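Quick one, T. Sequence first:
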Amino acid sequence: MANEALERGAQHTRSADRASFTDLDLTVPGPWLHDAPLADLDALCHRLRSDLGLPARTQLARPVRRVVAAARHLASILPAAVASANGGEVVRAGLTATELDHLFRHIFARKHVTHRKPAPGAYLLAATRLRADPRRCLAFPR
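Structure tokens:
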């Protein structure tokens, strides 16, 4: 039963990943998504170019409307933080480009944790700083 729940969660995450790429006008094959380095922006951009020949620009972040709307709404009613496996400068640049930088008092990036994804260090650190029970936190991957 636990394996079924994990698989359902993985399928949901892959669907969300595919929707995010679609919002950015990029079409990627499902099997490619399964092995893509989604937690590392530089590696992801390299693989988009090398594997699929798709343009990927790390210097240009474009807002994904659904994510921006959800982030603004939730940050207006709940404490919010950013926990990312990417470098802090990449995270801050993305937040600034999407005009979300003012929403988050706490931003945790790869330099703040010893073990990166799939270890939950950044997530647990964010929950601790927000004084929230990690089991009651909502996380948006990628």
